[in-house]
Design goal:
73% of the residues lie in helices and 2% in strands. It has 291 residues and is an all-alpha fold. The radius of gyration is 24 Å and the shape is globular. The chain has a domain of 157 residues: Orthogonal Bundle (MetI-like fold). It is built from twelve helices and two strands, in the order αββααααααααααα.
Length: 291
């Protein structure tokens, strides 16, 4: 007897598909359209092919922004991943009031909107009214994130670490909570060292969530815009002008729609490619663990 397949379920997901089309696919097609055309105004366009892509790929300005972006992402991952593991390892494992309080305190920075985070650190770092800037000035440290590139970088990095390390901590803590007590009991019987417990029990169990944490932090740090824009505006000079800030300046500040559209597509493809690599590694790792 031939099995009848009910296709009515598609009507349930049709509103979602329409919403995605309007919110993602149609804007993306508009960007693609702008990336291969030019205009002199009056809504008149003419075909230029891949001219804007070639201009973007050979632009020294964008190469510099890409270098700053890559450096920022590497620094963020290098600090936040080990720090998140360290904090998660020292959080209470048993459920209770203290454990719940620690989780709430750790999660608090994640509840603050990005623009508010930038405003907080913009005020916090000011020498005249900010606590951090005032304390460093009293200690004799020349700190001015609006004029000193190194100070601006330090401020943005510390701000991002304060804001997003909590995400890594919570993911690692979830991985640690999934480890049965029998593993620790067996390690205690074998008189395993603390490093051995971490190396052979805790780290393998956290491998999956760590890959997720690295993927999420890469995507967010590589697309960061609001926080550095609020704090430094991309300055001093172009010291903190990352790819997203440079893209906004090109599209809105200079109104170069063609190059900006090509730039955004290349930007999107880079993030998509790296995310695909992370996803492939995650799937391969899960398959290897199951076999």
């Amino acid at each position: 007897m031939k099995k009848t397949i009910n296709q009515k379920a598609w009507f349930m997901v049709l509103p979602v598909l329409i919403l995605v089309a309007f919110s993602a696919v149609i804007p993306l097609m508009t960007v693609v359209n702008y990336s291969v055309q030019d205009t002199f105004g009056n809504n008149e366009f003419f075909w230029v092919g891949l001219e804007w892509f070639e201009e973007v790929l050979h632009s020294e300005r964008i190469h510099d922004a890409l270098g700053r972006q890559a450096l920022f992402t590497i620094i963020i991952l290098t600090i936040e991943i080990p720090l998140g593991i360290f904090v998660a390892l020292h959080m209470p494992k048993r459920s209770g009031l203290w454990s719940s309080l620690c989780l709430v305190l750790v999660a608090l920075p994640l509840l603050i909107p990005w623009n508010v985070v930038g405003t907080i650190w913009q005020i916090f770092g000011r020498v005249d009214i900010g606590l951090l800037g005032y304390m460093l000035d009293q200690m004799g440290i020349d700190y001015n994130y609006t004029q000193n590139s190194f100070a601006a970088w330090c401020t943005i990095i510390v701000m991002d670490v304060w804001h997003w390390t909590s995400l890594v901590v919570l993911l690692c803590y979830a991985g640690l909570k999934s480890i049965p007590d029998a593993y620790y009991q067996a390690a205690k019987i074998d008189q395993a060292s603390r490093w051995a417990v971490f190396r052979y029990i805790e780290l393998p169990k956290m491998k999956g969530v760590l890959l997720i944490a690295i993927l999420l932090r890469f995507m967010d740090s590589f697309m960061i815009y609001t926080e550095p824009f609020v704090v430094t505006g991309g300055g001093p000079g172009n010291a903190t002008t990352f790819l997203s800030i440079d893209l906004v300046k090109m599209a809105i500040g200079q109104f170069d729609l063609g190059p900006a559209a090509a730039f955004s597509l290349i930007y999107f493809l880079v993030i998509l490619l790296v995310s695909w690599v992370f996803y492939t590694v995650m799937v391969h790792s899960d398959t290897k663990d199951m076999s």
